[in-house]
UniProtKB/TrEMBL annotation:
SMART domains: REC. It comes from Archangium gephyra. This is Response regulator. CDD domains: REC. The lineage of its organism: Bacteria, Pseudomonadati, Myxococcota, Myxococcia, Myxococcales. It comes from the Bacteria. Keywords: Phosphoprotein. The modification 4-aspartylphosphate is found at residues 60, 177.
Amino acid sequence: MRGKEMNAQRRVLVVDDEAGLRTTLAANLELEGFEVSEAPTAEAALEQLQHQRFDVIVSDIRMPGMTGVELFRRVRTEQPGVPMLLMTAFAQEELVDSAMGDGVFAILDKPFDVQHALDVIARALAAPAVLVVDDSVTARATVAALKSRGLQAIAVSRPADAIGAIDTQRVDVCVLDVALPGLDAAHVLKELRARQPHMRVIALTSTMQLHDAPRLSTLGVSSFMRKPVTLSALTRGIARARASRS
């Protein structure tokens, strides 16, 4: 009951021209205690956004008129800090890559399980941060770049600081350079996952380290990215990680 009471203070906007999916998702959110508004188009959503602020927005990408990606960019400008999830039945389309590269919270591939969608929305509402564990210069630069895309992020360069960071705040994705000098990747991964079991871990690796992928996967690494990594590629990886199942 307490969870529903807390949700009652949260406002969610669901945007989709497909009425059946929109009303189904809205109804399930209402059952969880959220206050929900609906909009059949991005233009209608923008009209609602002129009069009220939402805690999270869930929108389809392909709709008549303005796309969900265009809506996301308007929201980021007009109501910065509001997390947005995008839904699509076209997982490989260019719009999806563009949205993820621009810092959308997560992409939900249609058709999706409603409970999974509710779980991802709950993650977004928790206002989690991305923890970047790398050498000090790279970590600070990466965090600054992620913040420029609207993501909350924390930079650390020592494993002990990484463990301390997740002990004090909510982290849902960790970007870990497994090639850091003196790093015991297995130990760090076990410590991180013990404290936050649902945290997704993206391992940054070199070509020489790819042979470690099977072992690291068993320790909780959800995906691997080969360095150097572009900002757009990293934000896409984070969005995919956030939409993945536990």
